[in-house]
Write the structure tokens for this entry.
Amino acid sequence: MENFFSIGEVSKYQKISKQTLIFYDKIGLFRPAYVDPDNGYRYYSVNQIDHLDTILIMKKIGFSLNEIKALMQDYNADSSLIALKKQVAVIDRQIEELRLIRSRVLHRCEQMEASKVYHRDESAVIVEDVETQYILFREVEKPYTLKEISIATKKCFADSFQEQLPIFFQSGVIVPFQHIQEGRFTEAVMAFLPIEKNNSAPNIKRLPPGKCVSIYHVGDYLSIGRSYQKLLNFCETNSLKILSDAYEFCINDYITSHDENEYITKIMLYVK
């Protein structure tokens, strides 16, 4: 047909699938100028190609198909300017969100890089001055097995995703010092996610700055008792009084490896 393009030609010129064009037709976004009644073939006029360009550009900018359809029903320079300015605000929010996500992912990468040093020497105990940290927490239900810990951790992630809280994509647990003294090293009573300072949720706890001893435990979680024993021996040898429960931060875990031999957990205790 003269001055008309077949659906195959439009698909080829615009690098868009025939299925997409058929879908646009079904939702009333971009309908062919003519449909052959005998075979159902779709044909598009020359003027429609500009219309399709507009749709694809608006989609690239970030408008939804419903937004594009509504905008193009009766659009002019003024309505387009209003819509584009609104989209700039949406893009700015997305940029800010991506910037924050990038910083948190980078934080995880830096921790994993730092842990490589201690992967080679599990016996190394670190004495450090830590800065203020914040955690989003959930209590672990009795009997404090790995199952209950996993459930509490997943609830933390669910909370953070639902409320769009600024977490660092890392998990951890709190083990009471009494449990440690009794050799119940894996019985955590609290699961948590490190988070940026935030007042959006009631279950956010501030960890104060202070002097801490730390050790990186390498291996599966059930073997973590050996690293606790090293920490306790170090504190006794160096006359350090333990002031807190244990804070465990997962550096390598199921998120970063399927091999439990590669798991790395940083154990931290406040001391004086």
Summary: DSSP finds eight helices and eleven strands in the chain. Helices lie at 7-14, 18-26, 46-61, 65-72, 77-119, 146-163, 177-181, 225-237.
